[in-house]
Amino acid sequence: xxxxxxxxxxxxxxxxxxxxxxxxxxxxxxxxSLSATLLSCLIGLIIGATIAVSRFSGRSLVIIVxxxxxxxxxxxxxxxxxxNLSRSGPFGWLGFxxxxxxMIIAQTILIxxxxxxxxxxxxxxxxxxxxxxxESLSLTKSxxxxxxxxxxxxxxxxxxLAGFGRSNAEVGAVIIVGGNIEHLTRVMTTAxxxxxxxxxxxxxxxxxxxxxxxxxxxxxxxxSLRLTATRLGYA
Amino acid sequence: MKQISEKFAVLSILTLAALxxxxxAQEASILVQSTTSTANSGLYDHLLPVFEKKTGIRxxxxxxxxxxxxxxxxxxxxxxxxxxxxxxxxxxVKDGFGVQRFDLMYNDFVIVGxxxxxxxxxxxxxxxxxxxxxxxxxxxxxxxxDDSGTHKKEQxxxxxxxxxxxxxxxxxxxxxxxxxLNTGIGMGAYVMTDRATWISFGNKxxxxxxxxxxxxxxxxxxxxxxxxxxxxxxxxxEGQLFIDWLTSLEGxxxxxxxxxxxxxxxxxxxxx
Lengths: 235, 272
What we know:
The structure holds two protein chains of two kinds. By secondary structure, chain A is mainly alpha-helical. Chain A has helices spanning 2-16, 20-53, 59-69, 74-85, 100-136, 141-151, 153-169, 172-178, 188-197, 201-234.
């Protein structure tokens, strides 16, 4: 128990004193995870909405595959991206390996299926609710898509948060494609892994607590924005 | 109003996502694939600022096991390779992946064990005899099992002791040095580690060095420039500058000066 209190104390001192190394790591973590969340929302919402309003053969198979991809192991995604971005791989000429860009790519691949699969379910439920109305108004497919995306916006925020949570918490993918390089690709989770491997368990735990605080702040920020928006919307 | 606040929400997320990254300036930089011991022990934190200040070249270090470091360098994902498995390094150069191998520094391997010392190896110098005692006692032994420099060394020591380490007492963790120490200490197993990692390790528990001082436990580090003929992207000039500095009197002196708690971790022995 003493270890835990010490960790808490270490975490607090680092936060309160704005340790510059820690600030740099936190900012990079946010930059990578938020970019990946944004990108995967762009891609995933389009996929999810399109499938929600479309009927085609093999649709249930697509949905099953998409749902399964939610369980993509981060290490496998990391390896896949490494092999592609390595200098000896097909996209090596881009020079992206061991940069934040590579980390964003890996996390985007990791969380796009989560956004797509969850939003598909939410949007399909909404679509079924309004289906007859849409048909009586004979709306085009893109208008229908727009309408359900708008109607489901608050539930979709939770989907985005799930994606963000996954990207912010994973270490397997970013440590392979980022390399955990100090001042360049070191993020919260890879720093925690490093401190653990140095046997500095207290420091590792303290960083873990900081990571939790970040996650908490993001969620508080989003839900308060959402509350404000709802209140203003119905005022 | 509603629209404004939603736009604000989107905007604030976009702003966060576009946060500038520090340290991504347009300065010259090289990429070093390295063994973990040199990074985890803090040697680079001591050496690199001196080199960077002198030359303005930033050194980015990817610290992985020697096996993986060599593999990554073969894939051209490095300018310089700094590892500790001489035979594998010489093969790397022979196969045309590296230009030339330089001796850089050395330290030694040690076997650490719990206070209870179930195989009674504490204070032994003869590593072959110690390994035999551990195997005979079927005392737990945690091996890296990850094709790293330390793992290769450990395997060669078992081989010279003419022991085939199998059975439930021999636990292959398949992880890095630190993770293996954490695991080994957690289950009360003997672990072979390089001395630098051990000295700087923060989670020693009731463990201490049991076996040390055998010549067979010698641990040589080498540094190699990745071959630009094989990998055109290699920053030959900057990479060579780094190697030249490491093996120069100044670089060797900086290596000598690095200490933790009054103990020198690496002993320079570049032959230039």
